[in-house]
């Protein structure tokens, strides 16, 4: 089931497909079992990039609490 139509927003934000894959994986780590929250956060990240609130580079930085110590 698809909850949000985030793809047009990703295109408007001009996120290249290979970067979208990385962003998608980062967000999936945060919401591994919740498809609605995953899609919502993809939509919100793409909208923030599109609107100049967030840069693509900032969005692609791993969230500290998701990074495991080695």
Structural notes for this entry:
This protein has helices at 7-12, 17-30, 35-50, 56-59. The protein is mostly helical and 70 residues long. The longest helix is centred in the middle third of the chain and has 16 residues, at 35-50. The model has no long low-confidence stretch (mean pLDDT 91).
Which features characterize this protein?
70 residues, mainly alpha, 57% helix
In short:
The chain is mainly alpha-helical. Helix content is 57%, strand content 0%.
Question: Kindly state the mean pLDDT as a whole number?
Answer: 91
Q: What is the radius of gyration computed over CA atoms, rounded to a whole number of angstroms?
A: 12 Å
Q: How many helices in DSSP terms? A: 4
- When the domains are counted, the total is 1
* Parts with pLDDT < 50 across at least 5 consecutive residues: none
Helix-residue proportion: 55-70%
Element order: H for helix, E for strand: HHHH
Task: Please describe the topology of this protein.
Blueprint: H1 7-12, H2 17-30, H3 35-50, H4 56-59
């Amino acid at each position: 089931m698809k909850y949000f139509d985030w793809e047009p927003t990703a295109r408007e934000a001009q996120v290249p497909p290979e970067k979208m894959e990385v962003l998608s994986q980062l967000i999936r780590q945060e919401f591994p079992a919740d498809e609605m929250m995953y899609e919502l956060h993809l939509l919100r990240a793409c909208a923030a990039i599109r609107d100049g609130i967030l840069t693509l580079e900032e969005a692609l930085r791993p969230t500290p609490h998701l990074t495991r110590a080695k």
